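Batch manifest line 325
LIGAND: magnesium ion
JOB: complex structure
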Amino acid sequence: MSQPLLEVGGLTVDYIGDNADVRAVDDVTFSLQPGEFLGVVGESGCGKSTMLFAIAQLLSPPAELTAGTVLFRGTDLVRLGEGTLRSVRWRDFSVVMQSAMNALNPMKSIAAQFADTMRAHGMRNDDTVRDRSAEVLRLVGIDSVHLDSYPHQLSGGMRQRAMIAMALLFTPQLVIMDEPTSALDVVAQRSLMTQIKELQRELGFAVLFVTHDMSVVGRYSDRVMVMYAGQVAEIGSTDSVFGSPLHPYTRGLLDAFPSIRGPRRTLAGIPGSPPDLARPPSGCRFHPRCPAVMPRCSVDAPELFHIGDSDVRCLLYQQPLEDTA
Ligand SMILES: Nc1ncnc2c1ncn2[C@@H]1O[C@H](COP(=O)(O)OP(=O)(O)OP(=O)(O)O)[C@@H](O)[C@H]1O
Ligand code: SF4
Ligand SMILES: [Mg+2]
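JOB STATUS: finished
ARTIFACT:
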């Protein structure tokens, strides 16, 4: 296996509060190979966006990265100064955030916004800037006449595509995307996802992709990370996680999606909602909702156990590990 493009180790983020701190990302470790597509899923509030912000070094108070490393091609982004980070961001890795549709400046044309980003990275030649802007816009299926459009003149889907085009201006090796299609209708979502996947194959960048939608992950990801209450609940290849999900939470998420297993229903297999991270449950954080709960689950906090090609945080899998130890 080649050298990982991204190695996240022990990443921990707290929201610092007056009364209590909230640990929104708790000791998250994973790696991403060049050109790989890793889907991150989990219910609302489980720390997906906070983790992406921490990886991109875009956290702002009250969020604080309290532990961990983010090695990008071997360099720890956590230790880089803001000046160096600014030159690495966009050029080597780029970010399309959850509210990307509204991230475009309404007062500037698409061309002007792309030009600002390129000039900030030292591209001064007007023709080069214009040509590259037209090229990335075409890559995402938008005619280059729209370079002179203002965001309000574009549909929601086009604005989203324009944000993705901007993320590709420098052909980065990693594109981090937080629900880039969630504001679109189902047809537009499918078409944009297909396009992201084609671009990825063509240009070879790796993708770290957050979504609520297991069916999107099942279709487009090489590997899947399931987050629960700020922690990795399960991580493995898409085939393993979908073919034989190990964590009861993963099973519940899969059962909620009709295209994968049976008729659509809400998270019927998972009663209740994720915990308040200011007061996470004792032991396994999933125990108050788990259909497979055992007496020790409220006492013992599970580690990640390596099973097959997956890692799973559940005491059901503790025994095999001890047997092989
Ligand atoms: N500004 C804040 N102050 C305090 N706590 C916060 C703040 N923003 C988020 N949190 C905490 O961090 C947790 C994770 O939030 P985050 O936005 O990362 O979740 P998410 O998985 O991206 O959710 P969604 O799917 O809704 O986008 C929340 O449950 C909340 O407890
Ligand atoms: S450790 Fe126990 S409560 Fe937690 S997921 Fe496994 S069986 Fe369920
Ligand atoms: Mg989010």
